[in-house]
Write a structure and sequence with these properties.
The chain contains 9 helices and 10 strands. The chain is an alpha/beta fold. The strands form 2 sheets. It has an 8-stranded parallel barrel, surrounded by 7 helices. Strand 1 (8-13), helix 1 and strand 2 (42-46) form a beta-alpha-beta unit. The longest helix is centred in the middle third of the chain and has 14 residues, at 107-120. The chain is globular and about 50 Å long. The mean pLDDT is 97.
Length: 223
């Protein structure tokens, strides 16, 4: 399945509180159906309700996440095994989780979580990281692929204007896992560069495809 995502666009279908799409899984299913019509290679979605709804009509590989509070009370991506099992039961094909130092300082805890997902749930794990060191640790802990989702969103990384293409290239040169580009992609040429030039396995795009209010706001700002 990971090979089927190679050189493909993955569309992140997520809604935020305060937007017209929030709280209606059918809206996210419609977004995913649009991605399928466009020949995208996969979907990334948040929460069991949206995932179950999308899986009714969209046969693409599903990267599931669940944004919940961890034991510290901090909201992170798929904080524990229980949240991963909820995603698996909803039909996720890959479980993504926050693998940053900021979210998970204890390497043994990260190792045990990844191994439990891989062997008890039988699903591959995508480690969302923000720098090369976190990717190396995720590989050591048994992750199946790494994604640049958190680059620029931890206290010790710099938020680039667009996608962090240099980080993608460094990851490709450092780890043996498939590297997924994610975060601040807004132009097709950026996706092309990430895959064709920098060596990304695939690219996840969300806001620039599935948040039309933000796309419209870019035109308004330009005026």
């Amino acid at each position: 399945m990971l090979e089927s995502l190679k050189n493909k666009l993955i569309v992140s279908c997520q809604a935020w509180p305060g937007t017209p799409f929030y709280g209606d899984p059918k809206m996210m299913r419609a977004m995913a159906e649009c991605a399928l019509m466009a020949n995208a290679g996969g979907i990334r979605a948040n929460g069991p309700d949206d995932i179950r709804e999308i899986k009714k009509t969209v046969p693409l590989p599903m990267i599931g996440i669940l944004k919940e509070r961890d034991k510290r009370g901090v909201r992170i991506i798929t904080p524990d095994f229980e949240s991963a099992k909820i995603l698996a039961d909803a039909g996720s094909d890959i479980i993504a989780l926050d693998a940053t130092f900021e979210a998970r300082q204890d390497e043994q805890e990260l190792f045990e979580l990844i191994q439990a997902i891989r062997f008890e749930l039988g699903l591959p794990v995508m480690a969302d990281i923000s720098n090369v060191e976190e990717a190396v640790r995720a590989e050591r802990c048994g992750a199946d692929l790494v994604a640049t989702t958190m680059a620029g969103y931890t206290q010790y990384t710099v938020k680039t204007e667009g996608p962090d293409l240099d980080l993608i290239e460094r990851l490709v040169q450092t780890v043996s896992l498939p590297v997924v580009g994610e975060g601040r992609f807004s132009k097709p040429e950026e996706v092309r560069e990430a895959i064709r030039v920098r060596g990304a396995h695939s690219v996840v795009v969300g806001t620039s495809i599935t948040a039309p209010w933000e796309v419209a706001a870019r035109f308004v700002r330009a005026i």
